[in-house]
Model the fold of this input.
Amino acid sequence: MNLKQYMEMGILESYVMGITTTEESADIERLAMANPGIQQELEAIRAVFEFCALQRQTEPPVFLKNQIIEELVSN
Amino acid sequence: MSNNKIQISEDNLVSLLKNKDLRGFSILYDNYSAAVYGIVLKIVSSEKVANDVLKNVFLKIWNEIEGYDTSKGSLLTWLLRVGRRLALDQLQTKDLQDIVGNTTGNQLDIHSQGVKRLIENLLPEQQNLIELLYFQGLTLAEVSVKYGISVSTLQDRIRITVLDLRRFMK
Done:
């Protein structure tokens, strides 16, 4: 299988969604290191999902931020 | 986005975080907590649980920032990935089949007009795919059973959906 076919499998989209197996993820990360084309494709796919997530923004309760910071400081 | 978001370059923000500077943490939280909370709340459907998950996400990011590798994506992508994973861990005992049953026919809840138009360009089934896999955390196997198609056909459809979104976003 060549790189183009690999990119067309839909596996990169699954990787970005976090639903690939540990082995598949490791393969993809290795391939991405060696191939700027895959890296670029991953970035474009990530942009789509970040965009989708930004549309769903929901403000957390206001008290939560200080609670988390207190926990950071005490650790 | 609300007005309290601070403009800072990603590199500067990562430097602040790596230096364990609380100002960095505050900016990270102000800029991204709503995005992470949105997806976490969608998955766990309980505010109380979502609050705990959100806290754990930000503690994890703070503790693991040393190992953050920019080649694996932006801070937001990392936050979203950790958020989804920790939210899904909470779900393990929940019957996913119920979720599948309840979402048939649902579409993305999109509020902003521009995005609404963009998402409306997708077929309802494409909207459902993103909803089930990304926002509700079903596995490929679960969704392929729901649609009665193979995992590879499902991956094809996801790819086409993402390509469509990329085209509409331009």
Remarks:
- Residues 3-74 of chain A form a domain with the Arc Repressor Mutant, subunit A fold (CATH 1.10.10).
